[in-house]
Recover the amino acids of this structure.
């Protein structure tokens, strides 16, 4: 795995880092929604924000959680509808090595 992008926060504000970890754990804990859908939602949101590395990592995690390539592409379609073509371009660049 690559370096933790939030390492600087962990090193300089451990209390805030704990809050971020708690939020992550709460968001992705087992619940009524299957994990693959949580990951697809997060992937679509990252695409809408231009976060190419996030899209790549979340798409790989979604595949590992049972998502199909078709489900990933449907999430990209929704991203485009809601956020515009910029999200589709971000997703396309991120998914080159994934799909």
């Amino acid at each position: 795995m690559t370096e933790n992008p939030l390492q600087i926060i962990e090193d300089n504000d451990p209390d805030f880092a704990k809050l971020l970890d708690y939020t992550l754990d709460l968001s992705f804990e087992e619940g009524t929604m299957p994990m693959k859908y949580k990951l697809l939602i997060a992937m679509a949101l990252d695409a809408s924000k231009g976060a190419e590395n996030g899209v790549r990592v979340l798409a790989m995690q979604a595949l590992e959680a049972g998502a199909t390539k078709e489900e990933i592409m449907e999430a990209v379609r929704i991203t485009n509808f809601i956020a515009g073509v910029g999200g589709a371009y971000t997703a396309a660049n991120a998914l080159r090595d994934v799909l």
